[in-house]
Amino acid sequence: MSADTELLIEDGAEQEPPRRRGPRRGRGLRWLVAALLALVVLCAGAAVTVWGWPQGSQEEETAAPAATATLEYTTLHRQESLDGTLGYAEGGSFFARSDGVVTWLPEVGTELSAGQRAWEIDGAPVILLRGDKPAYRTLEPGVEGPDVRQFEQALAELGYAGFTVDDEYTWLTAEAVKRWQGDLEGVEATGTVGTDQIWYSPGPVRVTGHEVAVGESVAPATPLLTTAATRRIVRVDLEVGDRDLVAEGDEVSVEMPDGTTVDGEVESVGTVAQSDEEEQPGAGGGEEPTVEVVVALPEDGEGFLDQAPVTVLARGESREDVLTAPVGALIALPGGGYGLSVVSGDGAVEDVPVETGWFSDGLVEVTGDGIDAGTEVVVPE
Fold first, then answer.
1. What contacts 125, CB < 8 A, 6 or more positions away?
2. Distance from the first to the final alpha carbon of the chain
C-alpha cells in the first residue's frame, strides 16, 4: 500500500461522523424524569383534592371552646337508685264462716268495697263492711259491746239511719238492719246479723287469688280468697348499710315500667333486718341483711302493673355550700387524676388539677388551686 493510500485512510478515519448513541440516551432519561415528575404532581393534586392540605400547610386557626360552664357553690344531695316492686298494701285472706258449697267468687283483680258481696255459699251472699275487728257473735236486740258500735258505724256509712251509733243493739237498729237486708238479693230480712253474713275489712280490697273453686264444699275457716288493699305501694329491700338513705315521710321519685315518673312518700322503714334464708352453709359472706321500705304511691295512678319492677330514686344526706362543676367538664390528666380545662380572660385554656368529692344530679364537688365560684371551664361535647 502506498503512502498516499495510507494518508487517505487516516484522513477518512479522522473525518468519521461522531456516534449518536450517547446523545439519544441522555434525551431518553430526561423524558423519563419529566414523566415521573408529572405523575408525582398529578398524584399530589389528587391527594389534596380528596384529603385536603396536610396539617401545617395552611394557616392554623385557634377556635374558641365549643361549650363552657361556670363553677358555683351549691348543695349536693346523695341520690341512690333502689330496686323496688309494685304491689298493694295489707294483704290477707278471706275465710268461710259456714258449711256449704261455694256458689260464687269474685274474679281475680276485682276491687271490693263496703256494701258489696265478697262471696256466696249455698247462694247466700257475704257482705263486706268496714271495720278492724272480725265478727264473732250474732247481733240482735239486747246485745251490747264494741262490736255493736263497729257494726252500727258500718251500717250508717252505707246510708242506713234511724238509730244511734253506740254500744247497744236496739230495736231501732234492728229496723234499720231489716231495710238493709231487704235491699240485698238472697238475704232474709230478719233484723239480726249472723257471723256468716258479714266480713270486716279496714278498707277496699283487691282480690289477688282464689284458694278454692266455685262448686267446692267448704267448712268454717276454709281459705277462700287472697286479697290486698287497693292502695298502691312499692316495696324495697334496702341493705342495712344504706338505712340512712330514707326515713318515714321522705319524698322519693319512682320510675314506672312505662318510663313515666311519679312522686311517692316513704310510708315505713323496717326495723328488723332480714337475711337470705337460702344462703348455703360455708359459702362465706353472703348478701347483706336488708330491711323492708314501703313507699306509698298516688291513688289516681293509671296502668298499674302488679309485681312489676320499678326504680326508686331516694335522696339521703346532703352537703351544703360546696364548689361544683358539671361532671362532663372533668378530664383525665396524663399523670393520673382529674382536672378541669380553665378558660382565662384572654381566651387561653389551661388544664388545672382538681380533687373530686360527691357526685349528684350531673354535678361533681371539686377543689383545687386556681378555681373558685365564677371560674369558666370547658365542657367538651
1. 104, 117, 118, 119, 184, 185, 186, 187
2. 103
Q: Please report the pLDDT score of residue 335 as a whole number.
A: 85
Predicted TM-score (pTM) of the model is: 0.55
d(Cα 99, Cα 118) in Å, to the nearest integer? 16
Strand partners, 331: 339
Contact (Cβ atoms closer than 8 angstroms) between residue 295 and residue 267: yes
- Taking Cα atoms as reference points, which of 80, 74, 71 lies closest to residue 319? 74
DSSP string across 255-290: E-TTS-EEEEEEEEE-SS-B--TTPPTT--S-PPPE
Per this entry, what is the length of the chain?
381
Q: Is 152 exposed, middle or buried (0-12, 13-18, 19+ CB in 10 A)?
A: buried
AA identity, residue 119:
W
Q: Which of 10-24, 97-111, 139-153, 177-191 has the lowest mean pLDDT?
A: 10-24
Count CB atoms within 10 A of the CB of residue 138. 12
Asked if 352 and 370 count as a contact pair (C-beta separation under 8 A), the reply is yes
Cα-based distances in Å from 361 to 22, 80, 316:
85, 11, 13
Q: Which of 159-163, 166-170, 188-192, 281-285 has the lowest mean pLDDT?
A: 281-285
Distance of CA 183 to the CA centre of its chain: 48
> 183 Cβ partners below 8 Å, 6+ apart?
none
Cell of 1: 500500500
Q: Which residues contact 109 (CB under 8 A, 6 or more apart)?
A: 206, 207
Residue with cell 321500705: 293
